[in-house]
Write a structure and sequence with these properties.
Layout (H helix, E strand, L loop, with lengths): L15 H6 L6 E6 L2 E6 L7 H8 L10 E4 L2 E4 L3 H8 L1
Parallel strand pairs: 1-4
Antiparallel strand pairs: 1-2, 3-4
Length: 88
Amino acid sequence: METKETIDAKKQRYGAEEAVALLKGMSKMVVAKGKKVTEVDLKKDRPADEELAKLMLGPTGNLRAPTMKIGRTVLIGFNADAYSEIFG
């Protein structure tokens, strides 16, 4: 797998608008917060931007790390099981 772009989250901040803009052209979002994994179908049942931002942003109001775009899927946060499923 090839990395096309790496952004240092400490140097470049993504707020709600910038985070939601990352979803353009994506069909699925997987958000991992600890052991909880939430999958969102962005094509059929796309929630409002405010709801998406709540899932994507951490307590500081910035985009949670790590965040990756893999094909048409956006993976936010870390969960070993979710990573195994996507990268497996």
